[in-house]
Fold this sequence. Notes:
Strand 4 and strand 5 form a beta hairpin. It contains nine helices and eleven strands. Among the domains are: 73 residues, membrane protein fhac (Ubiquitin-like (UB roll)); 121 residues, Rossmann fold (3-Layer(aba) Sandwich). Keywords: Cell cycle, Cell division, Cell membrane, Membrane, Transmembrane, Transmembrane helix. It is a single-pass type II membrane protein. Its main location: membrane.
Amino acid sequence: MRKKWLKKNKQKKTPDDPASALTPWETYQKKQKQQSKKTNTIESKLPRLKELRHHHLVNRLVALLVTFIIIILIAAYFASPISKVGNLQVANSGKTTLSTQSVIDASGIKSSDLVINTLLHQTKISQRAKQAEPKIKQFSLSIAGLHSVTLHVTEYKTVGILLKNNRYYPILANGRVASSGSGHQIAGNYSVYSNFQHKQTLQKMVQQYNRLPSDVQNGISEIHFAPTKLNPKRIHLYMNDGNQVYATLESFSKKMRYYPSIAKQMKKKGVVNLEVGAYSYPFK
């Protein structure tokens, strides 16, 4: 009985892998189907890849073309006359004594200069113009059209006239003296400064003068620097009302404010001394 059971057990062979029951031909067919599915998946993706590559190539060509066109336009602009200053004019703010040519010369701008360089160096041009022409207080420029440049200028106010070597030079509100002088006294109600040999002394005098009320300023005809051993900063003034004034540079504006009230108390024309204290006496 035992032997028969063993024989029956050997005859029962149930395969664990279903593929092992396939014939070699069926196994080959199955592999071919699997390979075909993979091939179809790759081929389905190829049109999309080709489209993306084409789109990327077109974008690169457009970018290169735009860059090339911009380079050509820039080169053409710099090679053309419109890139250079073609028309140069001056616009003065308020009353001016400067000529158009003097402002242009001070700016240093030439017709051969590039407009873009002029714009980029506005600060440098402004500094150069102010240095070349002391009358210029404010300087700026603007571009109209393609290559028309306008210079905008504001001048310092003239506060007096410096008499030097028989020539009259305008004294500006900043204490500087104009470079151009005249053999004749400049028209206007300006005080005439004389004997000021040093720039620093003249600038201090102008600062003192600017602190005075306008009615006192208008009453001064001449200002002379007249130092002595006792007072090396003495100032001698000739007034439009016929009086003369002696004062000290450092205290000039402070004491000169009292001149109108002192002059009213004078019965005769004479001298007002403001060097030490404040007193007056008639001419001898």
